């Protein structure tokens, strides 16, 4: 390939090309935005200057051995530097598996505080008030980083300014490649929109096609100068709830997501349908405690098991085992008897003022 250094720099030759109207509009918008940001930058002085700079540098990259395929991997440096501080290489199948149980778990702002606030600062730095062209360009830079990838197939953003209402609406479409990671990313977008000041108005999701569409509208928070942390967090929670509400939980084929949420409520308890089922699960727990646990901690762990079923409230310290039945179990003569009968195999039980005390602990195997 002939190097540019052997050619004339004088711009006397014209080159006519045919491009789509959308591409032309995109280029004009990009040059206009960057010319306003950097009026002295010769590269954005005109459309012609921009074309010349781009083509010249592309040919130089080709001379160095780059190919057209390499452009799919080009990433904006500022975007790369920002995300690199919060990212790491991960094994997709492993994280696809581990995110399954978090499918309908809300985002904790406390755990994401630093990242979300840095993200807010980064976003506000890269586009100015009501400048949706800058916002579109920023999105295109971010999309280059995450799409395509092992977890993302396609992303698109359309912004619709409404001059009458002085508010813009937008639609984000996102197609993923992994069921759980795709859903986590939907939650993540909802959280980021909230911290930025954008309110979700509709969410369309297809688990079969790994597709989501999020419609949203800007609020006055979007361009507000102050941090307004409390309001942004509330909008974040509202947006994420739009994704993980109980209407969607009940549509999921896996009942464990509902059960996980129910388990957080201490006013609920597990009620076994039969003594056989009760014995089956007790035996599973008991076997693991005897194989992997400490002998002198067996009874304490058994009490923890019943406490996690919301059957009892433990009152004991390290050396003394005592507990109180939950009121609902006290009224259940059958299941409360199952509990006391089982504990009687390993300890002498006394009862005073509503509290059970366990003494003379011996560890064995129940039948």
Structural class: alpha+beta
- Runs in which pLDDT lies below 50 for 5 or more consecutive residues are none
Q: How far is the first residue's CA from the last residue's CA?
A: 83 Å
Oligomer: single chain
Number of strands: 8
Shape: elongated
| Largest sheet, strands/sense/barrel | 4 strands, antiparallel
- The number of domains is 3
**Beta-strand residue fraction:** 15-25%
Count of separate DSSP helical elements = 14
Helix content: 40-55%
Describe it for me?
The protein is an alpha+beta fold and 367 residues long. The chain folds into 3 domains: 4-73; 77-251, no CATH class; 275-359, no CATH class. The protein contains 14 helices and 8 strands. The protein has helices at residues 21-37, 47-63, 77-84, 92-98, 109-126, 132-146, 179-196, 229-244, 246-251, 256-263, 275-292, 298-308, 327-330, 333-343, and strands at residues 152-162, 167-176, 198-206, 211-218, 312-314, 321-325, 348-352, 355-359. The strands form 2 sheets. The protein has a 4-stranded antiparallel beta sheet with strand order 1-2-4-3, covered by helices on one side. Strands 5-6-8-7 form a 4-stranded antiparallel beta sheet. A hairpin with a 4-residue loop joins strand 1 and strand 2 (167-176). Helix 5 (109-126) crosses helix 7 (179-196), helix 7 runs antiparallel to helix 8 and helix 11 (275-292) packs across helix 12. The longest helix has 18 residues, at 109-126. The radius of gyration is 30 Å and the shape is elongated. The chain starts with 20 loop residues before the first helix and ends in an 8-residue tail after the last strand.
């Amino acid at each position: 390939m002939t190097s540019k250094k052997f050619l004339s720099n004088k711009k006397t030759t014209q080159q006519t090309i045919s491009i789509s109207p959308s591409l032309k509009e995109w280029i004009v918008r990009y040059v206009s935005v960057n010319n306003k940001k950097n009026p002295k930058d010769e590269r954005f002085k005109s459309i012609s200057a921009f074309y010349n700079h781009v083509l010249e540098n592309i040919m130089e990259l080709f001379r160095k051995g780059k190919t057209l395929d390499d452009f799919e991997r080009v990433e904006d440096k500022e975007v790369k530097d920002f995300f690199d501080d919060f990212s790491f290489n991960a094994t997709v199948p492993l994280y696809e598996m581990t995110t399954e149980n978090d499918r309908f778990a809300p985002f904790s702002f406390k755990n994401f505080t630093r990242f979300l606030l840095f993200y807010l600062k980064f976003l506000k730095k890269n586009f100015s008030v009501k400048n949706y062209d800058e916002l579109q360009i920023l999105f295109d830079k971010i999309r280059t980083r995450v799409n395509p990838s092992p977890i993302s197939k396609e992303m698109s953003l359309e912004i619709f300014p409404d001059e009458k209402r002085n508010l813009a609406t937008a639609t984000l479409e996102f197609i993923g490649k992994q069921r759980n990671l795709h859903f986590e990313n939907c939650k993540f977008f909802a959280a980021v929109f909230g911290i930025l000041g954008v309110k979700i108005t509709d969410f369309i999701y297809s688990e079969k096609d790994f597709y989501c569409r999020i419609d949203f509208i800007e609020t006055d928070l979007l361009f507000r100068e102050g941090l307004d942390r409390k309001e942004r967090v509330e909008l974040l929670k509202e947006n994420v709830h739009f994704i993980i509400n109980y209407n969607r939980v009940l549509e999921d084929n896996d009942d464990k997501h509902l059960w996980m949420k129910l388990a957080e409520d201490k006013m609920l308890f597990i009620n076994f349908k039969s003594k056989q089922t009760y014995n089956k699960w007790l035996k599973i727990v008991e076997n693991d405690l005897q194989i992997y646990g400490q002998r002198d901690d067996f009874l304490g762990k058994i009490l923890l098991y019943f406490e996690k079923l919301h059957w009892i409230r433990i009152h004991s310290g390290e050396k003394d085992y005592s507990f109180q039945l939950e009121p609902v179990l006290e009224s259940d003569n059958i299941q409360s008897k199952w509990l006391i009968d089982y504990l009687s195999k390993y300890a002498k039980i006394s009862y005073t003022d509503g509290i059970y005390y366990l003494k003379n602990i011996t560890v064995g195997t129940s039948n």
